[in-house]
């Protein structure tokens, strides 16, 4: 109402303007609120008013608020020094605007304006969504339409040229939405984004971070803004479903995660945990889109994202004392970071070498639905496999499986967090896994972060609980039916190892209990170990002819010409399943493709390198041959195989294959069909039976959910790496022996001097298997107990409990001689 002092002022809201309408105090107050709401600008004070008007007290300082909707004829904004609030109405950022502000700050050596802009924009989800947008590429039709609109707009502007200056004021939010085609997109354009396409210019964001993060004060602005931003974003996603309204909301997470300093200590305390909690609230489609986007990043960027979340998990685990009373599962920061790490894990899978086409056909018969209530249902034991094996929702949304990935961008091992595995209470975690409640998080739902030892423990709990459930059901059946049923899977025969398994196939989920006729020994685990060892030896006996053996690779493969019926191959699958179910290690030697096929993937050309290396090398040379394949090699789409008796068998890879020559153009097809025949078609009958037997035991197990093919091999076969130093460190002593006894020192010196084969014999003698368990020999709890004074008796063992009974031999030489004799001639149970 007092005015700027310029009697020719064109601002209609200014008291000095000729067109200003006088009003009382109440009307002036209302008008002032309206002007404030519309972000109206103040006039520059006229020279006659400077220093005299109380309406502009701030101008008596350094001229800090020289913004104007009208301009004085003698003053220009360019003539004024940059002020602290030049950018207070900047509601979003572009790369160019950041560099402009940075340059102005550099001239005055005062970065506070940039720090305030970053604090304002990066603490507001709405501002970040609008920031760093890509320039929109218009089609020809859109360009014509825009040109027509521009012409209409020009005519309108000419008609309204005499309008007031206040009518030309632009609302900042509207300006943000309309200034530049790349600044924002309307709702229709948002919906046109593809499954990987985003509206944010990621390269621009990275360049901006590179320029700004070197300045400590500016970096602090990013940190403080993130602390303020995260709770608001979490609230938006939890209660307002903002992503469904605007998929561009994902830009917030894309921009923040490009900050390469997120893993630094300053972020780990508050900012990053809060942001991870917000990210974990994203709906499934948003998580999938983020995974697809990150999958396009290189290995270095994926590794940076992994390290960011891993750093937070490790920092939190080390900084707290987690135990059975204070579970790591209840720490929101660790849980949220693990959920975020899952996005990166699937991005790593998607960005790797994928094979989604070669999948084994499922031949499992569906469980018949019965209208009658079974005893299990009456007891609350519903069919556990009714809905099929557990599948991660994000995996389903993305349409891929971990087993589809031949080679990820970075190794899967980098996702394992060892400190987390050390503090995880697996019994509690397994309970949360089975209950599937939203209030309790289980790390078994993110198996990539667990090592093989921890996952094996979870599988052990699952198997044991299933065994106890079968035992309870059997006992109740006995009460109802009045029959004495066996609660165990009991095997008594020694001479006919295979027959008992086939007879009691319906009881495979019961706990295994083995008795050897005519021999002493209560099965506490050791008898079962020897039973499996003897069964495997019989099954893989070359005289039976069920498998072929490759001398160069020391591996077995299914014999396509075997005379054995499918039941025998089903039996072998059952044996492998029982070994996992009863936590036994088998001495089987299959190529990795067998375990991939068990997980639902067909064999392809690259699998031949492991299973048929000679054939693989020949086909590889065919693919790389630079000459004329048809004229020089003269091969066709017909191949030759030999049966058990050496007779040649011809097979056409495609119809009329004997008349189709292999050429430079079709050699890739030839190689693919050859591999398909060798690894899939030729052994289809045998492998399906084998897989059926394996699934008879493991169909209800979380095996496929938790483990990758190479980990399945580790479960069945154990580790081939025998670290006896680790075994020595974990061995316990009983009966008067200790680590410092002379006999114990002589014992370990003797064992360490053994060759590899003698070490395997020692393990076989002491534990019942010559393989290390999952996690290595350090996980094997062996006990050496005193078995009397010096004598001529041989060392003995209780393989059930991994106990070695060792007399106190008088000399090191006698110890070596007695021990070697014991381990060399220890075939069969009960040698005393």
TrEMBL record:
It is found in: Cytoplasm. The active site is at 800 (glycyl thioester intermediate). GO terms for biological process: protein polyubiquitination. Keywords: Cytoplasm, Transferase, Ubl conjugation pathway. Pfam families: AZUL, HECT. Pathway: Protein modification; protein ubiquitination. SUPFAM superfamilies: Hect, E3 ligase catalytic domain (SSF56204). Its EC number is 2.3.2.26. Residues 133-191 are annotated as: Disordered. It catalyses: S-ubiquitinyl-[E2 ubiquitin-conjugating enzyme]-L-cysteine + [acceptor protein]-L-lysine = [E2 ubiquitin-conjugating enzyme]-L-cysteine + N(6)-ubiquitinyl-[acceptor protein]-L-lysine. Residues 173-187 have a biased composition (Low complexity). Residues 504-832 form the HECT domain. It is an enzyme of class 2 (transferase). Residues 138-151 have a biased composition (Basic and acidic residues). GO terms for molecular function: ubiquitin protein ligase activity. Its main location: cytoplasm. GO terms for cellular component: cytoplasm. InterPro entries: AZUL, AZUL_sf, E3A/B/C-like, HECT_dom, Hect_E3_ubiquitin_ligase. This is HECT-type E3 ubiquitin transferase.
